[in-house]
Design a protein that fits this description.
2 domains, BirA Bifunctional Protein, domain 2, alpha+beta
């Protein structure tokens, strides 16, 4: 396990050739008092990467695996959208046109290219981001993935540099602006989705970051639960 330190785009970047999980390392830093705002934990590969709902995140060499530590006094459902827009805008800067699957999975041509894991720890929030650049995992026939190399030539460090700047931009933006941009990029708006086994129409997000769904004339709000595109 080789460790390195660099300063980049107002972040202190701690880099490794391979560790179990950038997310776990960030949690450990906070637990033992080394956590601080604007730290990025970066790995060339992970042996135990994970996504939402404790799913395994396949982490081969050549992709971007990074966890950002930010000061955060309270949980905020709106953060997921700021992160999603920041990642999407990063890809757009390199000539790729993505969409965002609620809340912040990034798709290209309907295939997942990036995922995010947001976890809170004490006075901090950890934002874990994985972006497929050189390779993409085969999960199953219905869960399609892709990689940036299919669309554009970009290095991991170029991607990271732009992503860090966009995260600062969109985390600091008024949520009305974030919400409007997220809506522009959202996949599946006004279409049917599965929520808790039943069909509903995806309407959008409200000013507090809740997902708005509709069944017939009944509107209801969703926080954190998973939805499936039809």
């Amino acid at each position: 396990m080789k460790m390195g330190f660099i300063e980049l785009a107002n972040y202190k970047v701690i880099s490794f050739d391979k560790i179990p999980s950038t997310q776990k390392y960030a949690h450990d830093m906070i637990a033992d008092g080394r956590g601080a705002d604007h730290i990025a934990v970066l790995a060339d590969a992970q042996s135990a990467g994970r996504g939402r709902y404790k799913r395994t995140w396949v982490s081969h060499h050549g992709n971007l695996y990074v966890s950002f530590i930010y000061k955060c006094e309270e949980r905020d459902a709106r953060l997921a959208y700021s992160v999603g827009v920041a990642i999407a805008e990063t890809l757009i800067a390199f000539g790729v046109m993505p969409t965002i699957k609620w809340p912040n999975d990034i798709l290209i041509d309907g295939k997942k290219v990036s995922g995010t894991l947001i976890e809170y720890s004490g006075r901090f929030v950890i934002v874990g981001v994985g972006i497929n650049i050189k390779s993409n995992p085969t999960v199953n026939a219905t869960y399609k993935t892709t990689k940036l190399d299919n669309y554009v030539s970009v290095t991991r460090d170029e991607l990271l540099n732009k992503l860090m700047r966009n995260l600062d931009k969109w985390r600091g933006a008024d949520f009305s602006v974030v919400r409007a941009r997220w809506t522009d990029l959202a996949a599946g708006l006004n279409r049917s989705v599965k929520y808790r086994g039943e069909t509903a129409e995806l309407i959008g997000i409200n000013e507090n970051g809740a997902l708005v769904l509709r069944r017939e004339s009944h509107y209801f709000l969703v926080y954190g639960d998973e939805i499936t595109m039809q």
